[in-house]
Design a protein that fits this description.
By secondary structure, the protein is of the alpha/beta class. Helices cover about 40% and strands about 20% of the residues. The protein starts with 17 loop residues before the first strand and ends in a 5-residue tail after the last helix.
């Protein structure tokens, strides 16, 4: 199958906010001043009153305080009040936005990217990421000249309030998502916070629930976020699990909105396995709305088969957790996520939360008294191969005749025994070809063949 990513009329916001190299366009203090102003004006126009309240949080990057100061200047110049949470996970900012009755939440983070990058994500008053339409409205405010007319003077200039014990509020919220009749006594958990936003929150949550915690990646210095650690590099937590006899390893990314788990044998447990594990329990209890899990086109066919065997179904969206959440809201679904570890439990949170997801898996482990290596067998993964190629230009797939014919041929060949996904990267002329099926050698041949066809269509040669 093929699927193109939604293409809203926005230039600044990508699929996960604004992102780029810190102190280079577009992630500059100058842009942040104007973006803070635009978010405040948009909130006021939507009924927030004269002094919108904006929660502000950030990860541990060295550029974070600089950008936070600029965003604060923009908010207060428009008469808004900044509720400063300092270093907080992305899901923590979403939670506090609702908890504190704020009108918007802003996170300064580049998630899993290296420390030299940074970015801005915006949440609405309901704690959900802004829709494409609202992001387009904010972009329009940046360019239509109205911000200059909205500046406040004198006593109408806004201010800053520190959120007292923001970390404690987030820890308390996460603990409440764990079943009250259980605790983590006797469970040893290796927790890798990627030297990122959850370096205080994550170890505290597991420890306060009774676990013995082995902390890793909890000493940020501004430049080591995601460096050879966390969800992108689970080798560190895997080594700790094996050498220190942990029951589970928990590897978060820089802003802690996703997680990769490691079982007691050192095997990786990704988002697909977590979705299969959690959803099959809900299906047994007839507690999964519409008996449906929402995931992206990147999720393994094994997840779909596991859900089907349990009497459920998988509904797929385009790549990006925001599209998963939007579909969940549209269809009344309550659980979904991505293979990469973004897991959304709408009963507890409005966005992906790595610590929350780990807690739900640990609850199953404790309640059933079985190791994660056994629980993970709920799904059998089909071989999956993804290849990327950078090409001279990015054109609609329908305008590449050789590739289009090749895709049709492969889809006929695979039929019900596999899947094909061909799509462009959301930000660059990079073609992504993903094939899935029982024969790894066949998948290799399929991907190489389609990439060659794309090269020919675009005159790129071999």
């Amino acid at each position: 199958m093929t699927l193109t990513q939604p293409s809203p009329s926005r230039r600044l916001f990508g699929t996960d906010g604004v992102r780029g190299r810190a102190n280079e366009d577009p992630v500059t203090p100058e842009l942040c001043v104007r973006l803070g102003a635009a978010v405040t004006v948009a909130a006021r126009r939507s009924g927030a009153g004269p002094t919108p309240r904006i929660v502000l949080g950030r990860d541990t990057r060295v550029s974070g305080p600089m950008l936070a100061a600029a965003l604060t200047a923009g908010v207060t110049a428009m008469g808004g009040t900044v509720l400063d949470g300092d270093e907080l996970p992305t899901p923590g900012v979403a939670y506090l936005t609702r908890r504190l009755g704020a009108h918007a939440g802003v996170v300064i983070s580049a998630s899993h990217n290296p420390f030299s990058d940074n970015g801005i994500k915006v949440f609405g008053a309901d704690g959900f990421k802004l829709s494409d339409a609202l992001e387009a409205e904010i972009e329009a405010l940046l360019g239509d000249g109205s911000l200059e007319r909205e500046r406040r003077q004198g006593a109408a200039i806004g201010g800053v309030q520190r959120v007292e014990d923001a970390t404690g509020l987030c820890v308390a919220h996460l603990k409440q998502t764990f079943p009250r009749d259980l605790d983590l006594s006797g469970v040893r958990v290796a927790v890798d916070a990627a030297h990122g936003a959850a370096h205080r929150v994550a170890p505290a949550v597991f420890a306060e629930l009774g676990a013995e915690v082995i902390p890793l990646g909890c000493r940020p210095d501004g430049t080591n976020i995601n460096e050879a650690c966390g969800a992108l590099h689970p080798e560190q937590v895997r080594d700790a699990v094996l050498t220190k006899g942990a029951n589970v390893g928990v590897a978060l990314d820089g802003d802690a909105d996703r997680v990769i788990l490691v079982d007691e044998r050192g095997e990786i447990v990704d988002g697909d396995v977590v979705m299969a594990l959690y959803a099959t329990r809900l299906l047994r209890q007839d507690a999964l709305p519409h008996r449906t899990v929402v995931a992206t086109v990147m999720s393994n066919l094994g997840l779909e088969l596991a859900l089907s065997a349990a009497g459920g179904r998988l509904l797929r969206t385009g790549v990006g957790d925001r599209y998963v959440v939007e579909e969940m809201q549209r269809g009344g679904y309550r659980f979904g996520g991505e293979q990469s570890g973004h897991l959304i439990f709408l009963e507890h949170a409005t966005t992906g939360d790595g610590v929350l997801a780990a807690l739900q898996v640990l609850a199953i482990l404790v309640r059933e008294g079985r190791p994660l290596s056994e629980l993970r067998r709920v799904m059998e993964r089909l071989p999956q191969l993804l290849k990327n190629v950078t090409l001279p230009e990015r054109r609609p797939l329908a305008e590449l005749p050789g590739l289009a014919r090749g895709i049709a041929d492969v889809e006929r060949r695979l039929r019900d025994r596999g899947r094909l996904l061909v799509r462009w990267s959301g930000t660059e002329p990079k073609l992504r070809v993903m094939a899935e099926g029982p024969d790894p050698a066949e998948l290799e041949q399929i991907c190489d063949h389609l990439i060659e066809l794309a090269r020919r269509d675009l005159g790129a040669g071999a």
